[in-house]
Amino acid sequence: MLERNPIPNQVPAGRMNPNITAKNKRKRNKWLILVILAFAAAIVWKWFDTSDTSDPFKSDIEIVPAPPITALHPIVLAKQTELMAETSKIGITILITDGFRSSEEQDALYARGRSEDGPVVTQVQGGNSYHNYGLAIDFALKTKKGAVIWDMEYDGNKNGQADWMEVVEIAKRLGFSWGGDWENFPDYPHLQMDFGYSIRQLKRGFWPPVE
Question: Peptidase M15C domain spans which residues (predicted)?
Answer without folding.
Answer: 126-193
